[in-house]
Design goal:
The chain is mainly alpha-helical and 156 residues long. It is built from eight helices and three strands. The protein is globular.
Length: 156
């Protein structure tokens, strides 16, 4: 009995840990969600097309960079799962911003590319992209902005 009581004393949290109560506002997930909400609101008001979402924008930007990509590769480049990527491509096709065709080297794959309208749209949107980042990071000093971007890239 004595040994059990002694072991229980050993595994108790140190006194300093109990001085600070748990606060959701101090948690990384909460802070990232709040920062994401702010960035999304700034994106919508700044990007120049109220119908474009951040996921659609990143897909258009990658297609602009690569010209043509398989739907799977595009999804990997922008960090989207297969189902999400299918929905994004479907909506972009509905707006006639992208087109698709079967991959001649592999009939199981679909290749995605920008339409002429998609090229025009992405060219305008890309001009506004840096303003979204500037406004989002505005509360931080320049060195803090660089540091935040470096740290986020480590955990992304």
């Amino acid at each position: 009995m004595r040994n059990v009581a002694k072991k229980q004393q050993e595994i108790k949290a140190p006194p300093s840990a109990s001085l600070r109560p748990y606060r959701i506002e101090d948690q990384v997930g909460y802070l990232l969600r709040r920062a994401h909400q702010r960035a999304s609101a700034i994106f919508q008001s700044t990007i120049g097309d109220p119908k474009i979402t951040p996921t659609q924008y990143s897909s258009l930007a990658k297609l602009h960079e690569y010209s043509e990509l398989s739907q799977n590769r595009l999804g990997r480049l922008v960090g989207m799962d297969k189902a999400t990527m299918q929905g994004v491509v479907r909506r972009l096709k509905g707006r006639k911003l992208v087109d698709s065709r079967p991959d001649p080297g592999d009939a199981r794959r679909t290749l995605i590319s920008l339409t002429v309208e998609g090229q025009r749209t992405v060219a305008k949107l890309l001009l506004n992209g840096p303003a979204v980042t500037r406004e989002t990071l505005k509360p931080l000093a320049v060195a803090e902005q660089r540091q935040l971007l470096e740290l986020l890239s480590k955990i992304a």
